[in-house]
Automatic annotation (TrEMBL), chain B:
PROSITE patterns: ABC_TRANSPORTER_1, ABC_TRANSPORTER_2. It is a peripheral membrane protein. Its main location: membrane. It comes from the Bacteria. Pfam families: ABC_tran. CDD domains: ABC_HisP_GlnQ. GO terms for cellular component: plasma membrane. Keywords: ATP-binding, Cell membrane, Membrane, Nucleotide-binding, Transport. Residues 2-240 form the ABC transporter domain. The keyword Secreted does not apply. This is ABC transporter. It comes from Neobacillus vireti LMG 21834. GO terms for molecular function: ABC-type amino acid transporter activity; ATP binding; ATP hydrolysis activity. The keyword Metal-binding does not apply.
Amino acid sequence: MKMYLNSIFADPERTARLVDIAKTSLWPLLEGAIMNTIPLTIISFIIGLILAVLTALARISHVKFLQIIARIYVSAIRGTPLLVQLFIIFYGLPNIGVTIDPFISAVIGFSLSVGAYASEIIRAAILSIPKGQWEAGYSIGMSYTQALKRIILPQAARVSLPPLSNSFISLVKDTSLASVVLVTEMFRRAQEITAANYEFLLVYSEAALIYWVICFFLSVLQGFMERRLDRYV
Amino acid sequence: MISIKGLYKQFGQLEVLKGINLEVKKGQVIVVIGPSGSGKTTMLRCLNVLETPTKGAISIEGQSLDFSKSVPKKSVASFRRLTGMVFQNYNLFPHKTALENVMEGPVIVKGEDKTTVRKKAQALLEKVGLGDKIDYYPAQLSGGQQQRVGIARALAMEPEVMLFDEPTSALDPELVGEVLKVMKDLALEGMTMIVVTHEMRFAREAADEVIFMDGGVIVERNKPEEIFTTPKEERTRKFLNMIQ
């Protein structure tokens, strides 16, 4: 630690070099975030959320077959490491002739993961809405789908917003795993930069800082959305 | 207009309704009284199929459901539109304003034009004395106000019969009167109503007939003055003695 700090501040030439690296690597890192990390996060989360709602509905349906499919899916995804899932999709599937582009592979892996975890959040949120709300919907002639869409899901959304925001923020950071399936997102950019200059501490810290800033903005957004959804309570 | 024939309802081993037969004419106001567990609420919930009867048949205004066979979902939904339900706990949609609560059924279920429905909903809320509260969320309203929105919401679907499931039981005593007044006005307008309640004054003042239920059957049915002063059945007498 002391040696590292000394090497920076005692040697003006080294200081200048580090400042220069920090500056020149900022744009490539941001580019990785903008071109890959952020789109990967958003696309995977949206697909994952759709999967999650469908899975949650299957779990609470009265159709045994759907329940079983949903249970197996959630169990398999939660019971295996995300890293292993990504390896199976990207490196494993070509063995049976299915070759998928790195970005798409990552989207598939992350969507499946979000779908499984968020389905439990959404299922709990749906079950937390009092039965009387379904009945009130039915009593004015609504069908199951109408009651679900108009009455239950909007209220469940409010309940599930905090835990879903958690999942979203986790996903931003989990996308760094996409580096191992050759997606040039922010962390893979960082690895490429350090491969040339060996300044691991500086460049990885810089990447960490950018992750932090992104997540900070998401927290602010979460607070804003919570206030909006809480307006009726 | 309403006819219930041989209605049975079983929850697991527990038989709650043991053969209900009931005829109600258009415009009649029927008050259902009885001890808790007598099946009053279950009978009401069977009328709009929130509970599916084990067997028996119900018909309202010519539409009938025979529960001895399996009943298709579609006919349940259209059957439900004949009845308007007012719940003990109001069950308003908390994420919608009073006006939106009332508009929801006509707009979403009947697919009516929003501007027309808005006017109709506004008129209904004025009718229940809430013309100045249309943009309030349920959480901003008192229990009595919420229940009146509940009544307006049910009326918006223009039902043939209004079902009230202990509409004032969850209310603070001073708020009961405002809800009962709305119900009395409805009765005077000629609405067909079946009301499960413990409000004997309402029964005396607004009911055409009172039904006493006990143990899953209708024990006695008579005009309010008769049933309250000279009940025919021993069980009715005992119950009335206990609550008065």
